[in-house]
Amino acid sequence: MVQKSNSLKHLALQKFKKNFWGVFSFCFIVLVGLVAIFAYVISPDNSRYANQMHLTIHSKPPGFKVSMLVMPSQLNVKQSGFNKLFFGDINTATEIPISEFTIKENMLAYTEYASDGLEGQQKMIDLSDFKDYNTTDLVKERTFYFGTDKYGRDMLSRVMVGTRISFFIGFVAVFISLVIGVFMGSVAGYFGGKIDALVMWIINVTWSIPTLLLVIAITLALGKGFWQVFIAVGLTMWVEVARVVRGQIISVKEMQYVTAARALGFGDFRIITKHILPNIMAPVIVISAANFAAAILIESGLSFLGIGAQPPMASWGAMIKDHYNYIILGKPYLALIPGFCIMGIVMAFMLVGNALRDAFDVKS
Fold first, then answer.
1. Neighbours of 53 (CB within 10 A)
2. What b/e sequence results for 154-166 when a residue is b if at least 16 CB atoms lie within 10 Å of its CB, and e otherwise?
3. What confidence tens digit (pLDDT) does each residue in 153-187 have?
4. Distance (Å, rounded) from C-alpha 16 to C-alpha 34?
5. Sheet holding 64-71, edge to edge
6. Which keywords does this chain's UniProt record carry (predicted)?
7. Against a cut of 0.90, is the pTM above it?
């Protein structure tokens, strides 16, 4: 029995590998996951939440270049490498966009950058405070590959850091939905009777409430914040998992291997976890991929409404909210870039879900 199960898994894996778009989407998801984990390592702005503002260069187009005066931080806050990797650098340098600079003796004179043909202020700094740094360390050419937002922050860095919220909310929401959904569906499908009626009543009541409205209500009850959104989205997605698990268990609980397990005196818990669930997880995996994409869309909608991730945290939905009015002001890229990111990751999960459905389809 175990050998046949392994053979079916092997066949499903081979079918999945033959699906080009499924494999391509899976590789894209892995790449996005790596970006989410190492966002502060690879992003140009490694400050916490990529929140370095340069108001003089706000709303610049992709590929914009400017000379940047980088003055090392005078703070000496102790920060571990782990904390810096996952939460950004606290001791960030002060960056000032400049148009030109000159060095005389021990003084550096510079002109602040000003757009629209205006002339920036002229200022000077004493280089003796930065004697351990060369001029090339203090003045650097900076390229903003995705441009800057309305606060002058690097859009590329914000998109990379924002990947964390959109990506990890899928994992947390799917995990919560699987824990609750598999438990409720297993209990209802296996025991039936009044227990099944009670669970189905809870499922139908939850199902009848609009998802976004239910998420908003849970979010307001738990408070606005990062983890509150994760929990709220997860608590609204378990009903689909529960219905699928319940239906699958009803269809297999009278099969011979389940009857044999009962005859051997195995308990209900062991029969469900060791014999039934491993044989019905294929459709659950497929629906989990779809729920992953749905969780990203729900979080983006909540952030757009202002009740998701709160500033200054970077979120794709919040980035669209901040810049959607720029679409009619001739700078649509400020809203389109995070919009394309949402579309890309959601499409990737939907394609992976379709590929998994075809791979687990024993009739094809």
1. 16
2. bbbbbbbbbbbbb
3. 999 999 999 998 888 888 888 899 999 999 999 99
4. 22
5. 122-126, 107-112, 94-104, 64-71, 139-144
6. Cell membrane, Membrane, Transmembrane, Transmembrane helix, Transport
7. no
Q: How many CB atoms lie within 10 A of CB 71?
A: 15
d(CA 222, CA 282): 33
DSSP output for 61-124: PTTEEEEEEEE---------HHHHHHH-BSSPPEEEEEEEEEEETTEEEEEE--STT--PPEEE
Instruction: Give a yes or no: residue 41 inside a domain.
Output: no
Assess if residue 340 is contained within a domain.
yes
What residues does 65 pair with on adjacent strands?
A: 143
Angle at the Cα of 189 (from 5 to 362), degrees rounded to 5?
30
- Structure-block tokens of residue 321: 């909210």
Q: Does 18 lie in the same domain as 67?
A: no
Domain boundary among 108, 127, 152: 152
For tokens 């408070």, what's the residue?
223
List pLDDT tens digits, range 261-301. Answer: 888 888 888 888 888 888 888 888 888 888 888 888 888 88
